[in-house]
Amino acid sequence: MLTLPGLLLAAIVGLMPPASLKAVDAPNDQGQSIILTWTAPEGESVPVTGYTILRSCAPDTGFAEVGTEPAATSEYTDNDVIDGTKYWYAVQVKSGADSARSAAVGPVTSKAQWFNTARVNILVVTVVICGLFFYYLQRARKGAKMYIRKIAGLDAIDDALGRATEMGKPILFSFGLGYITDMVVIAALPLLRKIAKKSAEYSTRLIVPNSDPIVMTAAQETVKEAYTEMGRPDFYNPDNVTFLTSDQFGYAAGVDGIILREKPGAIFWFGYFYAESLIMAETGHSVGAIQLAGTTETTQLPFFVAACDYTMIGEEIYAASCYLRPEPIMLGTLKGEDFIRFWLIVLVTATVVLGTVAAVLSKQAPVLNQVFETVVRWATPAY
């Protein structure tokens, strides 16, 4: 409620328009956006109830309302503009039935920026990552020895194949319900190749039931080529690499039937699996087979861990191809990825420690909190 002096002052001076109105093209965007800023009328004794944003392509023909803002706001973003078109703006302050309009500003146009300066951090990280990849790629091409940690599941493949051979039982390999377009299926093909070579060397039957006809064709060619390389083309039997069905639980029932009839000594689950994973893995466990699994489907990993002897978790199945065929491109990429992951863990841990210390010593050393906020702000990507 206005006091008597305030009412007298309002009657004499009147409602003042907004001051310092500015209209600029929105920075770091894809265009079609203009930002308006202003300041509230100085010394205004009349309560401001809001602002009306006015726009015109030709100020001589009048302005049209494009938006409103509450009294506590001093900024407005107009997202309904056309790049390259000239606009003039004015802001009208409201107080009940009274209003006062600012002087028009313009012309201003919007345009898209080629580079978002708020994302320099992403550019820096991208350059560092690409640089590390190329560095390790060149080292691998020059024959430099690079240490890569071992995967327990890969070392167990030979043991599983030897166990099945000693028991006189076949080997079963499954891609799950994956398609040939799935990266995990492509990554599993070199594993099938290694297993097929060993089965030819040990003269152990290899069974590969498939849920997709294209994956079946790729599996047949992989097994046939592996047998040929081992000098055993006669050992290949197309009836052992077959298509069952594309139905999820129909495939699971078919694989379970094969397991119960053939009682394989070793089972390999490498591919894309869904809810049928535990059903098939438990069936394999019931016949006493040693089981190795690998998938990128994180929701199924707990079931494989519970039912199988060895499990490749996530990206380990991708890294397996590099172990089996250490080509420079794959080796350099894998080493670069491991190096980046290591330093990311170090940086995240250091940031957490810095944030904790800054929170504990916020009064004694406020500069630590400022450093922590700067690091977090820089590491947060802008959208």
UniProtKB/TrEMBL annotation:
Fibronectin type-III domain residues: 17-113
Q: Give the signal sequence positions.
A: 1-22
Q: Pfam families, from UniProt? A: DUF6754 (PF20539)
Q: Which residues cross the membrane?
A: 118-137, 171-192, 340-361
* Taxonomic superkingdom: Bacteria
The record's section on InterPro entries has: DUF6754 (IPR046642), FN3_dom (IPR003961), FN3_sf (IPR036116), Ig-like_fold (IPR013783)
**Keyword list, A-Z:** Membrane, Signal, Transmembrane, Transmembrane helix
Q: Does the keyword Transmembrane apply?
A: yes
What is the protein name given in its UniProt record?
Answer: Fibronectin type III domain-containing protein
Q: What is the lineage of its organism?
A: Bacteria, Bacteria division WOR-3
